[in-house]
Specification:
The protein is built from 11 helices and 32 strands. The strands form 8 sheets. It has a 9-stranded mixed beta sheet with strand order 24-23-27-28-31-32-30-29-26, with no helix packed on it. Strands 1, 2, 3, 6, 12 and 13 form a 6-stranded mixed beta sheet that branches. The C terminus is likely disordered. Helix 2 crosses helix 3, helix 4 packs across helix 11 and helix 5 packs across helix 6. With 559 residues, it is α+β, with helices and mostly antiparallel strands.
Length: 559
């Protein structure tokens, strides 16, 4: 049994793959039990939300339902805060994003173990390709908090997993029935627009009878852009519309009332988006030649008791929806000076342009755009990206579960390859690579940071720096670890600071060496060796402008 978990910002999906009696690989989405309106029901998706009710907490549908009634006790979109110091305080219980992720993963684990015939050795958990080592470290910690063992956990990139799910289906078809001819390399841009994050990978793919190869050639920088941003834009637009239509003047509504109205509209916006997507796609499937006037299609939604006991009856067309959210499609052509500026100007086109520019890739070299994630189903998103890239767009049949399916399929291929190699049968190769979206740098406060792991590095990777750094203070050593494009990147961010007070004075100017590795899960380990002193193992305190915590780094004082 091969397990895969798509730990999403909005929804989490679990998939399993197994070989049946006829030797065929079967992939299924695991139905996850969860409380919903006082009933225990099973669903294919688990909302990545937690509702706290006194000493109890609920994961999934009930938490999603409680957003309207008890929002202060519901945590949503926590994935956006992985790798940061952000916390939630729920009735005195302080939680970080990794703690929330652990609750979601533990719910998945319990469901898997409750079901019969689900023995597994490894679980593949997916993350955005642009996640940095700190964010992945939080994901690993969450998995271990949930009860998974170190040697059980594999981390893979979401875009590659989604594409693998599609390619696996393609290679199982007869050659004449395949959508893609993969006998020659195809360059595919994977655009994964989920509930809270936008992830882009450009992957070279080739698949034959005995080999399947996925090579990442570009990764977009981490972008907090997703369905929640579309919902926010629509909610704000509808609020302004309500004020205008009902002639409500500024200042006559308190901030508390406006906030309550906005929360109701935010929940309504999610439903409206889903309704529009469903109706448009249904009409497209029924229309001859696939041609319809999409802009005029409308849906209705009613919010009872919206304001002063009155309802808000909403009717909105696709054209109106696009107008409310138009800034999320417009490339402002801004060259960011700071990483935080991405938040002000985020849209689905700029992230593509920036990725192509950063890796010097011409749009003409891309053969297809593969779209996954919940927002990929919205027609305007597909249209704008197809228009910009100028290549055919592929949307999988079930974009919501493509990542989870690919995660479980990945482990099947890895195990099969290793098994055949051990049995010395005709070899089958499954090749995939994970690369870093940004460089990892060290700064000793002596000038520009020193790149130790360059952007585009394929993991695992190891390196060392001999004699380049010297002790600047006899009392201790301090290293700042940065993430960014390179040492000249004005938008680089400090990830953590490593501080170690010496147990005895070390002469200023004494050289020290650094040895470091980054494993296949993008976890960094580091060792520092100070020359000219007696050997001594010491603990290292890691302090960060992002989080204060202890880490398993070590410094060796060597003779």
């Amino acid at each position: 049994m091969y397990m895969g978990i798509d730990l999403g910002t909005t929804n989490t999906v679990v998939s399993r793959s197994f070989v049946d009696a006829d030797g065929r690989l079967i992939t299924e989405v695991v139905q996850l039990g969860q409380m919903y309106q006082d009933n225990w029901e099973k669903f294919s998706t688990l909302p990545s939300m937690i509702y706290f009710d006194g000493d109890q907490y609920y994961v999934g549908r009930e938490a999603k339902r409680q957003r309207e009634w008890d929002r202060e006790h519901v945590i949503t979109n926590s994935k956006r805060f992985m790798g940061t110091s952000h916390t939630w305080n729920i009735d005195g219980q302080v939680l970080e994003a990794k703690d929330v992720a652990a609750m979601v993963l533990q719910h998945c684990k319990k469901t898997i173990e409750r079901e019969g015939n689900m023995n597994y050795e490894t679980v593949v958990i997916t993350v955005p390709a642009s996640f940095n080592p700190e964010q992945i470290e939080d994901t690993m910690k969450a998995a271990k908090q949930a009860g998974f063992q170190d040697d059980q956990i594999k981390i893979r990139h979401e875009p590659t997993a989604a594409l693998l799910s599609f390619i696996d289906g393609e290679v199982k078809k007869s050659r004449q029935d395949r959508y893609l001819d993969l006998s020659r390399r195809k360059r595919i841009m994977v655009f994964d627009l989920g509930g809270g994050t936008c992830d882009i990978s450009i992957i070279d793919v080739q698949a034959g009878d005995k080999e399947m190869c996925f090579q990442e050639v570009a990764i977009g920088r981490y972008q907090e852009l997703g369905g929640i941003d579309f919902d926010n834009r629509l909610a704000l637009g509808l609020l302004n519309r309500y004020f205008k239509e009902n002639q409500i003047l500024e200042g006559t509504v308190s901030d508390r009332e406006k906030n309550e109205m906005f929360v109701k509209l935010l929940l309504a916006a999610e439903t409206i988006k889903e309704k529009l997507t469903s109706v448009i796609n249904a009409k497209l499937s029924m229309a001859e030649g696939g041609q319809i006037d999409k802009d005029s299609i409308s849906v209705k939604h009613n919010i009872p008791q919206f304001y002063n006991g009155r309802p808000f009856r909403i009717q909105i067309t696709k054209a109106e929806y696009d107008e409310y959210t138009k800034d999320l499609y417009i490339d402002t052509n801004v060259h960011y000076k700071k990483f935080e500026d991405m938040e002000k100007h985020k849209n689905i086109i700029t992230i593509i342009r920036k990725t192509l520019e950063d890796y010097n890739i011409n749009k003409a070299s891309i053969d297809y755009v593969f779209m996954t994630g919940g927002m990929s189903q919205f027609p305007t998103v597909q249209e704008k990206i197809s228009e910009y890239v100028g290549k055919p767009v592929i949307v999988p049949e079930n974009p919501m579960d493509a990542v989870a399916r690919g995660a479980s399929i990945y482990q099947y291929y890895k195990v099969r390859e290793e098994s055949l190699a051990q049995e010395k049968e005709a070899s089958e190769k499954f090749v995939d690579s994970m690369m870093l979206a940004e460089a990892v740098m060290l700064d000793m406060k002596e000038g520009l940071p020193r790149v130790i792991i360059p952007k585009k590095t394929v993991v695992p990777y190891s390196g060392e720096i001999r004699g380049e750094f010297t002790i600047s203070s006899p009392s201790g050593i301090k290293l700042d670890i940065y993430i960014g494009e390179n040492e000249w990147d004005s938008s680089m961010r400090i990830q953590k600071s490593l501080e170690k007070p010496f147990n005895f004075p070390v002469q200023t100017g004494t050289p020290f060496d650094i040895e470091y590795t980054i494993n296949e899960n993008k976890a960094i380990e580091m060792k520092i060796i100070v020359q000219g002193a007696r050997r001594e193992e010491v603990e290292v305190s890691i302090r960060s402008d992002i989080r204060i915590k202890e880490q398993d780094y070590n410094i060796v004082i060597d003779e």
